[in-house]
Design a protein that fits this description.
The protein is of the alpha/beta class. It folds into 2 domains: 217 residues, TIM Barrel; 99 residues, Lyase, Ornithine Decarboxylase, Chain A, domain 1 (Beta Barrel). Helix content is 30%, strand content 25%. The protein contains 11 helices and 20 strands. The strands form 3 sheets. Strands 1, 10, 11, 14, 15, 16, 17, 18, 19 and 20 form a 10-stranded mixed beta sheet that branches. A hairpin with a 7-residue loop joins strand 16 and strand 17. Helix 1 packs across helix 3 and helix 7 packs parallel to helix 8. The longest helix has 21 residues. It is elongated and about 80 Å long. The two termini are 19 Å apart.
Length: 371
């Protein structure tokens, strides 16, 4: 690693957060760790391994490529693909023993052919739309038709039914209550028609783990809280796993009237000490933080001045004595008594912590601690 800009990922925090979620479950309720999108930017393989150490029973990804990455790393536990089934991926799904969600007969036929060609069985979960209006079947007759069709398939085995809550983290309990009722009704149809072992029912996302125990059922899916961010106030005791750190590249003084960065959007009104950092929006640092965000230098806040550039940005360290090139600078995380969280950055840019965590680009190295 040559760069002084990197992410520090605390795997002990991942394990800690998973155990907090598991402590909310009844004995026998399985835990699925969501490690899609490169584990929300944290690194899929190390996070998956930490989750397994902490007691995860299944992993979830969004696309087959993410599941294949985990298989190549030697991870053998069940992996559920949450994204839309693609016909061209059926062979890879079968050969890598991945579990695919389905919600149409057209999803099943390529999987059946791939299972026959590879000589192995493909597991599937039926996606049920109970109010998210994203993917999944929503009518009883469609659930019955698909399950009956699966009963006749060789090489494709229905293992579970799943849904997704649209408002579990919102102050709209009636919406979630209606979704739970609908999920129960549709699962009852699948259970009645299904021939084989008991199906796994899972609809609880992270917010539901803490707020809706009646939705825990056979399995829950833990996402954002695994990385230390609470989707609801009830999710207490979590530890953020990601810190984003760089080192100051250059420090210089400028005179009043001097403009800074592209477009000269900042003009010094006093003698100003400018620190240049070797990180920018190509690294995933939000350009929207230009002129409004801050970083931590020597345990104090240093405001961003001027526009964030592709590979560099400038901060004002006039009020931080002895700030110098080579100083460690925290873009997200804790330094001294000050902290910057993904929620803080999200609030300044009008987005959510999920997007901030997924933002650091591949050219920002991940360093793992706490293992």
């Amino acid at each position: 690693m040559y760069r002084t800009t990197y992410l520090s990922i605390d795997l002990s925090a991942i394990r800690h957060n998973l155990k907090i979620m598991k402590s909310r479950l009844a004995p026998g309720t399985a835990f699925l760790a969501v490690v899609k999108a490169n584990a929300y930017g944290h690194g899929a393989v190390p996070v998956a391994q930490a989750a397994i150490q902490a007691g995860a029973d299944m992993l979830a990804v969004a696309i087959p490529e993410e599941g294949i990455e985990l298989r190549k790393a030697g991870i053998t536990m069940p992996i559920l693909i949450l994204g839309t089934p693609e016909e061209q991926a059926a062979k890879a799904v079968a050969e890598n023993h991945l579990t695919q969600i389905i919600y149409d007969e057209n999803h099943i036929r390529p999987l059946e052919q791939a299972a026959s060609a590879s000589g192995c069985e493909v597991s599937v979960h039926l996606a049920l739309d109970t109010g998210m209006s994203r993917i999944g079947v929503s009518r009883e007759q469609d659930v019955e038709r698909i399950v009956r069709y699966l009963n006749t398939c060789s090489g494709v085995r229905l293992r579970g039914c799943m849904t997704h809550m649209a408002c579990a983290d919102e102050d709209e309990p009636e919406v979630t209550e209606a979704q739970i009722r609908r999920f129960t009704e549709l699962c009852a149809v699948a259970d009645r028609v299904h021939q084989g072992e008991k199906l796994i029912h899972h609809g609880a996302n992270t917010a539901s783990i803490f707020r809706w125990p009646e939705l825990h059922m056979d399995m829950v899916r833990g996402g954002i809280a695994l990385y230390g961010y609470p989707p609801v106030p009830e999710a207490s005791g979590l530890r953020p796993a990601m810190q984003w750190i760089t080192r100051a590249a250059y420090v210089k003084s400028i005179l009043p009237g001097t403009r800074v960065s592209y477009g000269g959007t900042f003009t010094a009104e006093r003698p100003t000490v400018v620190m240049t950092l070797p990180v920018g929006y190509a690294d995933g640092y939000p350009r929207l933080l230009s002129g409004r965000g801050y970083v931590l230098v020597r345990g104090r806040r240093a405001p961003i001045i001027g526009r964030v550039c592709m590979d560099q940005m400038m901060v004002d360290v006039t009020d931080i004595p002895d700030a110098a090139a080579g100083d460690e600078v925290v873009l997200m995380g804790t330094q001294g008594q000050e902290s910057i969280t993904a929620d803080d950055l999200a609030g300044m840019t009008g987005t959510i912590s999920y997007e901030i965590l997924c933002s650091p680009s591949a050219r920002v190295p991940r360093i793992y601690v706490g293992d």
